[in-house]
Structures are given as C-alpha cells and as structure tokens.
Design a protein that fits this description.
- Helices cover about 15% and strands about 30% of the residues.
- The chain contains 7 helices and 27 strands.
- It has about 450 residues and is an alpha+beta fold.
- A 6-stranded antiparallel barrel has the order 4-5-10-9-6-13.
- The longest helix has 23 residues.
- The N and C termini lie far apart (about 60 Å).
- The protein has 2 domains: about 270 residues, Alpha-Beta Complex (phage-related protein like fold), CATH 3.90.1690; about 110 residues.
Length: about 450
C-alpha cells in the first residue's frame, strides 16, 4: 500500500550528525613513474667534490704506414697522435620547499582519527615524490624545454597549445599551479604576468586532450606584454635562468643537461667538450622514425651499432608509442599449445628486441614526448652528484636530503613573523652520458 502523504518519517536531515562519513585512503593522483632514475641508479661511489672528470678519446692514432709485400726498407709516415679531452660533469642543485601552518602540524601530529597520515609524513612524502618528478624531467629534457608551442591565444588570460609531437603527457598533467617561462631561440621572452612580474607565468589549467595550457594571467616580460609564438619552448620558471632589466634575456641554464640535449647537440660545449669539433662526441639523430615498430627501432639502433656499439640499449618511449608497439606484436602473435578457447592472453609486460648482437629493452615513460624515442647505452650512463649519508627521508635515499646542510636535523624552520614553518628538500646531481656515439634520439614518430 502506498504511504500516505500525511505520514511523517525520520530521514537523514532530521538526525543531523547521526550518520558518520566513511573515509577512503589518501589518493596520490599525479604521475610517479621515474624510469630513468630506476634504470640508472645513483651510487654513493659516484659522489663528487667540486665535479667529476674523466678523459674522453675524441681522435684515434693515424700514423699508419702501408709497407707492401717485398720486405724492403720503408720510411715510416709521420705519426698522427690520438687525442683526449677532459669531460667535466658538475652537478646542479635543485631545492623544493613548502610552507605549512603551525596548526596543520599540531592538529595532524599523527595518523588516526585526526588525519589520514601525520602532517610531517605527508609533507615529506609529497616533497620527495615531487622532487623525483622534477629530477626525471631534467634528466629527460633538461636545458631543452618540456614542450614546444604550436599556437598562442591572448583571449581571456591567455593560453598556448603545444605540438602533439612534443607533448609529454606525464609533465603536462601535473602543471596546474606551476610557474613557467617561455624561451625563443636563446632568449627568455616571457617570465611573468600582469599579476606577478618575473615570478613565472602561472598555470591555471591544463587540458591534456587538446594539449592546451591556460594561464592565470597574460604573459609578460618585466612590464611589457609578451606574445608567445609557434616554435617557442616552455620551461619551468627559472630553469632557463633569470631575466634582467625586464627585457628578453639570454638563457643561463640552472638545471642539469638532459639526455636529449646530450645526444642531439651538434655544437656548443657539453661537459666542457666542444661538440662542433669532435664527431666522436656527438650522438645520433634519426629525424623521421615514422610508424613505431620493431623494425623502426632496430633501424635507429643501427646508428649506434655503426659506430661500434655492442651490448644492451634501453629504448624509452611514450606510453602511446609503447602501446602501439605492443599492439603490433599482438598482431604478429602466433598461438601455440598453450592456447585456450576460454580466454585469450595477448600482449606482453616487457618488450625486448634483438638484432646484430644488440639487445633493446623497451620502456614506457610518461615523461617522454609522443613523437620521440631515446636509445640509451645501459652501461654508459652515470648519475653524478652529492651523496647524503643521513638524508632524513623515509626510503633511505642518498641522492635526496631533507636535512639542514652541516646539521643533524631536518630542514624545518619557522618563518619569521607568521605562524608557519618552511620545509625543504634538495638534490645535487647530474646525469652523464659517457659515450654519446652509442645513443640515439629518434623524432617524427607517427600514429
């Protein structure tokens, strides 16, 4: 029988506070995958003082004389000596900080009824994870920028669309709230906004489907409006260096040299070695990979093989490229006696390619551009930097520290004049490709 409209029922609004909320777990939504740091681990044995140096042979001996077969006396040709130059690797310091109120620390002193986790533990984990992301960005594309502008719109607060080929979805997806600079050629041409000059162009929102970055305010350089354009490059604020006098200023990089630049640069000094002078110190670039496949990857690897490489290469692909490669492998998969009609088990968790005595291990990284791949000699990359015996972190990492330099306590300091403290963590390191001739950058991946 239907309830009478005159009946009165107890509902949740009548018993305010009676029903308890049910809480889930704290969810960390931003990308965590740091492929390069897992592949090339930091060792305390690679800790440095001022810098790390090693000789690099750039020219071999050519004092050869072909003496024929008659056994007579032959005057030897003049010797042409080999040549080595010094590669000098200096680590770059990266510091990440956060500010937390006294009340947040006091009321969230421990996990339980009052907080999902202790405030100190949360701040420490968050800073550690974010610093790892920043290091991964720099190792991948440091001093080269993380995206290329396709178009700029001055409508509203301004926005840019980045090119599909340069899109690093793992980086774009975490940019909300970040501060950016715009570089054109060798100059920083925008590093602030109408609201905050020279403190970076604040990011309001990101649409990873349309590859659009919307700013919180129009971009400026000093007190002058700036107009980003196609082929300009985006950097995190300060990575390309500060500006001076409120005008476009030549870059003075403050982040480590990423592997992309170490491989692709053909001029300029990299670790003190002049790339323009020595072919042996230049990497290999394939400008048009085309559709990604085992064949296109092995063809790119042949560039390194031609220059003497044998061993294992790590191929770093975007997740999109890795998925396409895996799908093509599925298409070529042949069922054997393990086939069952009840289910089809297709694809692989790892992709390993072989050819010409070389093994290529393929890894997906959300920090890699969709239009690029990187082939890296597994045994010829080192991470150089400061090692911290007492890091203050939860994982015992020796390349990240939460400690005050020269002291035995964590870097948690009161901020004068306000009821808050500042928490810092830092890392002082560089990634170093010892043999650029054994590495390959591939561009122009198509889908």
């Amino acid at each position: 029988m239907a309830a009478s409209t005159s009946d009165v029922y107890v509902d949740p609004l009548d018993l305010a506070g009676f029903l308890k909320p049910v809480f889930g777990e704290l969810q960390w939504l931003l990308p965590e995958g740091v492929v390069l740091q897992k592949l090339f681990k930091f060792s305390k044995g690679d800790a440095v003082g001022a810098n790390f140096q090693e000789p690099v042979q750039v020219v071999t001996s050519w004092g050869v004389t072909f003496c024929g077969s008659d056994g007579g006396v032959v005057t030897l040709n003049e010797s042409i000596p080999s040549k080595t130059v010094n590669a000098t690797v200096t680590p770059f310091l990266t510091v990440l900080n956060d500010k937390v109120s006294y009340g947040m620390f006091d009321r969230g002193a421990e996990a339980g009824k009052k907080a999902f986790m202790a405030t100190g533990a949360y701040i420490g984990k968050n800073l550690s994870m974010q610093l790892r992301r920043l290091l991964e960005m720099s190792m991948m594309c440091g001093q080269d920028g993380f995206a290329t502008v396709s178009t700029y719109s001055s409508a509203g607060t301004g926005s840019v669309v980045v090119t599909a080929a340069s899109a690093r979805i793992g980086i774009l997806s975490m940019l909300e709230g970040a501060a950016l600079d715009v570089v054109r050629g060798t100059n920083v041409i925008a590093d602030g906004s109408t609201a905050s000059n020279s403190t970076g162009i604040k990011v309001l929102s990101v649409d990873i489907e349309t590859l659009t970055i919307t700013f919180a305010a129009l971009p400026f350089i000093g007190s002058n409006a700036a107009t980003p354009a196609a082929d300009d490059v985006l950097f995190l604020h300060g990575a390309a260096g500060p500006t001076a006098g409120g005008v476009a200023t030549a870059v003075s990089f403050q982040e480590m040299i990423g592997l992309k630049k170490q491989i692709s640069a053909t001029t300029g000094l990299v670790f003190g070695v002049n790339k323009a002078l020595y072919q042996a110190y230049r990497g290999n670039v394939v400008l048009s990979i085309g559709p990604i496949s085992a064949g296109s990857i092995l063809a790119a690897a042949a560039k390194a093989i031609n220059r003497g490489f044998q061993g294992r290469l790590c191929c770093v692909l975007s997740p999109t490229a890795w998925s396409v490669l895996n799908s093509r492998n599925i298409g070529a998969q042949v069922f054997d006696s393990s086939y069952k009609t009840s289910n089809a088990d297709l694809g692989t968790d790892a992709i390993v390619l072989r050819g010409q005595g070389v093994v290529v291990e393929c890894y997906p990284s959300a920090y890699q551009a969709d239009g690029e791949l990187m082939l890296l000699p597994k045994e010829n990359i080192k991470r150089i930097g400061s090692a911290y015996e007492n890091s203050g972190g939860e994982n015992g990492d020796t390349d990240i520290s939460f400690m005050i330099p020269g002291a035995a306590q964590r870097f948690i300091q009161p901020i004068p004049g306000v009821t808050a403290v500042k928490v810092e963590c830092r890392s002082d390191q560089a990634i170093y490709l010892q043999k650029p001739a054994f590495a390959v950058i591939g561009t122009g991946i198509t889908y």
